[in-house]
Amino acid sequence: MIAGTTHAESGLSKAVWSDTDFDEMEWHQVTIHGLCVQPGATDGALPRLMLDIDYIIRWVYPVEPEKHFTFWISPATLVFEDVRDVVGDLSFTGLPLSLDIDQLRRADPQDAEDAPHWHIEGQSFDLRFRASGFRQYLRQVPQHSPRLVLTPDARGGIAFTETAFA
To answer: Which among 106, 99, 147, 113 has a CA at the least distance from the CA of 24?
Structure first.
């Protein structure tokens, strides 16, 4: 699938998203399966932050007699460019080890730098950084799932591929 095409069942309008689409996107309850810091392509270039996630395209309301939501989900690679000023906190004491996003926020810079501030807030973690922007690649056709997260087999394992499904 190329950008601009759709997956009618899930309501997906395109397979590659960017920071220009930020206001249309939502990461609530999205699970992070892997995180990678990729060095800049040249000396002096800033690194990239890559997240392997299960992106929830749509929550499906239950229809009687069902009582639980189901979900349209696609494994995705979320890539932030020119990352700097990273600050974070992890705290899983007494909790299961799971990186589930509550929300992803963007704030315009309040200083002379032009890169926005990004804040990924989770139930047991917090990550703040600056980045020039992001691209998100949906790697597979959306799958209808009874759970908020896909199994490792269903998602094809951990990956940081920057190619959308065709």
So the answer is: 106
How does pLDDT run along the chain (166 residues), one tens digit per residue? 344 557 889 989 999 999 999 999 999 999 999 999 999 888 888 999 999 999 999 999 998 998 999 999 999 999 999 999 999 998 877 767 889 999 999 998 777 778 899 999 998 899 999 999 999 999 999 999 999 999 999 999 999 999 999 7
- Torsion of the alpha carbons at 144, 150, 151 and 153, rounded to the nearest 10: 70
Distance (Å, rounded) from C-alpha 13 to C-alpha 36?
Answer: 27
Contacts 24+ apart (CB under 8 A), 63-70: 68/146, 70/144, 70/145, 70/146
